[in-house]
Structure of tRNA (cytidine/uridine-2'-O-)-methyltransferase TrmJ:
Amino acid sequence: MEVVFILVAPAVPENVGASCRALKTMGLQHLRLVDTEAHTHKQARILAHGSTDVLGNARVYTGLADALADVDLAIGTSAKARHQWRSLTRAHELGELIADKAGVVARVALVFGCEASGLSNEDLALCDLVSSIELPAPYPSLNLAQAVMLYAYELRGLRATTQPEIQSVNGSDAQQYRALREKVSQLLLEHRYGADSKLTKWAMELLPRADSKAIGFLHSMCDKLLKR
């Protein structure tokens, strides 16, 4: 399973460099950047001391949707109270939640917003889950690099491994979770529950919490219902 960290529109070069160092320290290496040039500044290279390989290999995208195109499970990070999500996954819960999807998810992304305003509601809508860090006091808040370090620490046991060969959806397909989301969406749509319906939104928010065994069961159930 490959774990990717995505920084959306970071404005401070030092934060990009420090994030690279945080990832390297925790045994992680995959960084993606969206709508920014901060990584090209000298200060980013200085703060990335010992991890310039992570900085140099970072992939750059013009939009978050493009950065998530090959991601199976996207997890947005946010401290905002105003968004559509009914529940948040705490940072310390993510390691076990992701590990439980071994074999059905090939690539996981942690998505972080800019320093000034974080992820927009539109960005969060592109994610499967939203996570937050429990803090005794909301202020002073964590800056971007600090948040990356804490999440990297929580996911340090999920170091990138060789991606398994993609097999059939009903076998050990490493993208089985993404296929399940499509099936559930199709099933709900056939019963006239569109993307904006409460039932669909709630189902899509609960699906990422399923483990590998539950995902396999839901595949079989959806197949039978779709055939009928």
About this structure: The two ends are 35 Å apart (CA to CA).
